[in-house]
Amino acid sequence: MNNNYPKLFLEINDSEYIFVIGDKNEDNKFKIIHKSIVKIHGIENSRITDFDLVFNTIKKNIFLIEEKFNFIFKDVVLIINNFRCSFISLSGFQKLNGSQILKENITYILNSIKSNLNETENKKTILHIFNSKYYLDQKKIENLPIGLFGDFYSHELSFCLINKNDYKNFNNIFNKCNLKLTKILLKSFVEGSYISNKNKNSDTFLKVKIGKNESQIFYFENYALKSEQNFSFGSNLVQNDISKV
Fold first, then answer.
1. pTM attached to this predicted model
2. Nearest residue to 145 via CA among 184, 103, 175
3. Whole-angstrom Cα distance, residue 75 to residue 66?
4. What are the residues whose beta carbons fall under 8 Å from the beta carbon of 34, sequence distance 6 or more?
5. Cβ(149)–Cβ(99) below 8 Å
6. How far apart are CA 22 and CA 65, in angstroms?
7. How confident is the model over 85-120, as pLDDT tens digits?
8. Alpha helix (H) ranges present in the chain?
9. What are the tens digits of pLDDT across the range 166-182?
10. What is the distance between the alpha carbons of residues 18 and 80, in angstroms, rounded to a whole number?
């Protein structure tokens, strides 16, 4: 195995903990070498309801994996689904008066938007930040227009936010497992990125997932996850309606 591998991933959804180990093969391509699924414990309605139960379940299963591979993990990537994350898009601007757009101008706009968001959403933590749209003199630009000249520049960012207490609980759980939580990813973002990579011309799309008891819709725009909505009904509702006919 490579020095920096294997890698530990943990997905937490409505019903399961999914532990995944990834490694690199001889061609330096990522591959899954282990996957184990455990019934969810200590989490109800997208909230941690029993900290010790969640901690002990995760610690026990990671220990079993470490024994199997004779490898001690130092960090973990967490993938979550339906933890009541919220989405917001904000724009900032810079008057240029015919001057050139510099990297410092972009940095100033980004920091200003983040600062305002942290003040207004002080009970939440930023999970993802996406560059959504760029406008120079009211004309949409495909890429960051650093080096171009103009009079007015507008930059839109899309944010995904998680409840700050949920974020702290996750960090605390993994700290107690002697693991560094390097990233928290939304499953819809992972799935959307995969779709975009497989379909190079599909940078904007809507995906609808219908399960037995729940459904989900998420929207990608310009390779950015713009929104996600979960519903507590699925194909069971359709079946019930049909049975009444």
1. 0.82
2. 103
3. 13
4. 6, 19, 20, 21, 65, 68, 69
5. yes
6. 12
7. 899 989 999 999 999 999 998 899 999 999 999 899
8. 51-69, 103-120, 164-176, 187-198, 235-244
9. 999 999 999 999 999 99
10. 10
